[in-house]
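Proteins fold reproducibly. Take a sample protein:
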Amino acid sequence: MGKIGLIIRREYLTRVKKKSFIIMTILGPLLIAAIGIVPVWLAKSNETIRKIQVLDETGISEGQLQSNSNIIFTYLNSSLDEAKENLKTSDTYALVYIPAGQDDNLLVTQRNIKLFSREQVSLNVKVYIENQIEKQIERALLKSQGVDKELVASIEKSVNVNMKTIPLDESPAKDASYDVELSTTIGAIGGMLIYFFIFLFGAQVMRGVIEEKTNRIVEVIISSVKPFQLMMGKIIGIALVGLTQFLLWVIFTAAIYSTFMNTVVKEKYSADKIEMLMQNSPDGTAVEDIDEIIENQQLFERVNSINWALLIPAFIFYFLGGYLLYGSLFAAIGSAVDNDADTQQFVLPITVPLIFSFVMAQTVLNDPTGTVARWLSFIPFTSPIIMMVRLPFQVEVWELVVSMLSLIAGFILTTWLAGKIYRTGILMYGKKVSWKELAKWLRYK
């Protein structure tokens, strides 16, 4: 154990002191945080007020197109030519022209509505204007049929189906709602990270073994330690490097997000902001802004309700278990070949289960409690990804225990098989190894 510890220490310190490790440890959280923060920041910094003039010859809008924090509607009572000339010289962003039809048929009129602008109109602005006009046409058509438009408007605002998904449990304490959409997102991200981490650090093990074998350094090391000790020390050492980087990423990313939430998001979506919008908009034109704020507040609450105390330790376990299982096989491949070019025929077959589980993740997300999902989470070669995809959906405890035990058993088996290949291949030079040759090495005593 002492010799394995020395090898682990060597592998760990050698890699954590590299500039590439330090740079990626710093850049990783920044890139992860940027994915969520930059779009919000850009959207906030790009909140340009767009003035939209409306020339409505039909009267269907009746001055009821709802403005928001970015789009403000004003109404004209002039000819189209005068409105176009005014658009050229004013700071108005665009002109909406709703022409009067000959037969006052709104279904015909809607096809003739035009949007004039000095520059290319953004998609968001166009879609928002279209939605507002559609609402007014719908109300006008309902009114023509004798339906009260105010009643329709109140119904539209009040109807908003948002079902809570609640697992049936005998214990009231556990009878809590969970979010299907958020669980799906977290499961997909967790499975994807496991997939890339196993490939990344598994490949590092393989390249490290090939490099030491090519440089003949391994001959000196083998004179002091057993091949199996060398293999285990290298695998565990690199696993600790990956675990260190992951934990630092979690800490740094959480710190960045926490700072951002406290300084920007909470201020934007605070209760004071909602009250201010209500006071400054008694006519209800800021209802959509308030709805957006409330939705984002609910999103933050849903994120905080996730059982991170289970997900993060489980992620660490499945990352380490999956990496140790595949890392031992990568180490065996590295010991059997002399260069990277010779690894292709061996890498694909052993990584097929990993690739298969990544592909099947979408199927599992659609049915996380199904038979396929359950069995794939029990198989050691697919469980690291599949179980991480399923965990946000509140997996049964016994399934989690069986999955973990099978992964441990799988790691022990692959390590034993890889050790047999490693002890022979690490000192084998100048020979093209085949699968048949590897099978012979497994039978050596």
About this structure: Strands lie at 50-56, 71-75, 94-98, 114-117. Residues 170-177, 282-287 have pLDDT under 50 and may be disordered. The longest helix spans residues 227-268.
